[in-house]
Amino acid sequence: MKTTQVFDPWPEKYDHWFETPIGRLIKTYETELVLDMLRSARGERILDAGCGTGVFTQDLLATGARVVGLELSLPMLARAREKLSGDPFTPVQGDMNRLPFKDHTFDKSMSITAVEFIQDARTAVDGLFRVTRPGGIIVVATLNSLSPWAERRQRSGKEGHSLFQDVVFRSPEDMRQLSAVPCTCRTAIHFQKDEAPKKAKEIEQEGRLQGLETGAFLACCWRKPALPGHAW
User: Fold this and answer.
1) What crossing angle do the helices spanning 197-210 and 21-38 adopt, rounded to 10°?
2) How confident is the model at residue 1, as a pLDDT?
3) Residue 104 backbone dihedrals phi, psi, to 5 degrees
4) Does residue 30 contact residue 188 with C-beta atoms inside 8 Å?
5) In angstroms, rounded to a whole number, what is the distance separating the alpha carbons of residues 96 and 80?
6) What is the pLDDT of residue 7?
7) Distances (CA, A) of 216 to 16, 93, 97, 141, 175
8) pTM above the 0.85 mark?
C-alpha cells in the first residue's frame, strides 16, 4: 500500500478513539504537554504538519492562533476541513519531507505523531526549521520507542497491520539527534491502553513526579536561533 493510502481508511476510527474514556484522557494529557511547549498566542501563524483529522488542531485554534494544516491523506484532510469550518484554518495536502512553503513563513510549527511514519526524520525536522521564523518554536511529538505502546504497535506491524509495518519509533535521545540545535524532551502517558481512567490518572501523576522519559507520548521542543541583532 502506498504511503498516501495508508491513512485513507482511518478518519472515523481515529476520531472515535479519542472519544472513548481512555482516549479523552490521553488527548487531555497530550494536548496539555504540546501547548505548554508551543506557547501559542493569539494571531500567530502556526503550521500543523501531519494534522490528520484536526484532533489537536482544534485546541491550537482555541488559543487564537491561525493554523495551516498539512496532511498527506486527502480523506483525513477533508475531515479536518469539515470539522474546522469557520475557524482560521487553511488545509494543504502535502508531504512533510517537501514542505510547500517559503522560508520563515510561520511563527511556530508543530507535528504530532506523524514523524514515526517518516524514515528520514532529520529532513522533516530540517524542513520545519526552514519554514519557521528565526526565534520561533518547533514542537515534534511521536510515540516513544522506550514505551510498551511502541512494542505493541511494532508487533502489530509484524503481524500484518498496514499502519505499523514501516513505522519508526524513536527514543528521546534519537529525537535529540535530529537537529544540532538543543531541544527539550518530555513524555506523557505512563499508563497502558487498558487501564481504568481513575488508575491511569494516578499512574500519570507518579510518572510526572519522577520525570520519567518512558511515557508513550514523547514531545520535543526546539527554538530556532534568532538572527544576529534581533531579540526574539
Assistant:
1) 30
2) 40
3) 60, 30
4) yes
5) 17
6) 62
7) 20, 28, 24, 10, 14
8) yes
